[in-house]
Specification:
The protein is mainly α. The protein is 66% helix and 0% strand. The chain is globular, with a radius of gyration of 24 Å. The chain starts with a helix and ends with a helix.
Length: 149
């Protein structure tokens, strides 16, 4: 055997088979969360404040936003004033989580889920965790609830 033939015969063979792609179908929470995120980003803060005020009440919405005057929520909802960026961030997070649960279950379940003790959040209410800035923890808990884990 010549050196060229020897080198060629000992070279690793290329695998021309197509790789098998293993993808998992998106979970229920993945599908809903994507839609909810887009909808929340497109909403004006006055719409968000109005929705949360209507469904959680002024006092709880104020608590979530990190403000002491519940009447301020009504002013935001009517568009008279706008919240500071940190309050807006809390309200948007609360709406995303609320909508995720509502779309998977119902309005009443979403409200109960937001105010009830949650074992995934060390028995704190998701609304309180959002007020404390723990947005990701709450979204993880909400997605787990929707997916049934």
């Amino acid at each position: 055997m010549t050196a060229t033939k020897l080198a060629h015969s000992q070279a690793p063979r290329e695998n021309h088979a197509m790789p098998i792609e293993t993808t998992t179908a998106p979970s229920k929470s993945d599908l809903i969360a994507g839609w909810v995120h887009v909808a929340t980003v497109r909403m004006h803060i006055s719409e968000i404040a109005r929705f949360l005020q209507d469904n959680l009440g002024q006092r709880l919405t104020a608590r979530i936003a990190g403000i002491s005057d519940p009447k301020q929520i009504g002013k935001w909802a009517s568009g008279v004033t706008t919240p500071r960026p940190e309050s807006e961030e809390r309200l948007r997070a609360a709406l995303q989580v609320f909508q995720l649960i509502q779309d998977a279950e119902s309005l009443y379940t979403a409200r109960a889920w937001m105010i009830g003790m949650n074992p995934q959040l060390e028995d704190e209410a998701p609304a309180e965790c959002i007020a404390a800035g723990r947005f990701r923890d709450v979204m993880v808990a909400a997605r787990a609830y929707v997916d049934g884990s």
